[in-house]
Amino acid sequence: MFVDTHCHLDDEKLKDNLDEIVAKFRAAQVGIVINIGCDAATSELVKNQAEKYDGVYFAAGIHPMDVEKATDKDIEKIAELCKHPKCVAIGEIGLDYYWDKTFKDKQKEFFASQIRLAKEARLPVNIHVRDAMGDALEILKNNKENLTFGGVMHCYSGSKETAKELLKLGLYISFGGTLTFKNAKNAVEVAAAVSLDRILTETDSPYLAPEPVRGTVNSPANIPYIVERLAKVRGAEISEIESAVYNNTLTLFKKIRA
Ligand code: NI
Questions:
Q1: What are the tens digits of pLDDT across the range 63-74?
Q2: pTM of the model
Q3: Which end of the chain is less packed: N or C, by CB atoms within 10 Å?
Q4: CA-CA distance, 173 to 194, in Å (whole number)?
């Protein structure tokens, strides 16, 4: 069974064809899918979708790009959603300086407070970092004691050195479509080196469709392309990657019942 630890089924491009999308990923042997919220409203939407389909779980959280307009009330809403039996993580949370650097402090504040919330809720975190790894690592290190339930760095494409730091913090590394792209030098290097018991897979649907379907609307049914690529760069069997990712998923996301 394959696993997609990060997708956005509430997205405009996917939400109206869900029956079809779910049937398609089930046919592709993708049996566990984690649907990720980006603010209080979308966390509620991904929850509703998870309630409807077996094998679909969700994460609730406030994405760094949605922090600007967020308030403490939104954090309370996320805390409430964490109690749901299918809420398996807090996320996506993190730092993103790519589009806008004007509210860095608020991003840092919400990142740290949601890591603390994860400990209270006994959940792992799903982390998004773009152009902000230095600050993100600092916050993660300062909150090491709040990462009791672990976490995953989503869509990793950073350096080997940074990956080492993340692994030292007990985090998992998740690989997505970018691993299959021609210029994926860093991701390939990390994917080849990281220990098998720390690897996860994701699509980030509807974004970042992998080769050979790059440029199309991504969906969890494309996970096998990523697993195939991981197997190739590690010189491993597909079945070996498949079972490692499955076991890692159940270890990290403890609320998922096989
Ligand atoms: Ni995402």
A1: 999 999 999 999
A2: 0.97
A3: C
A4: 8
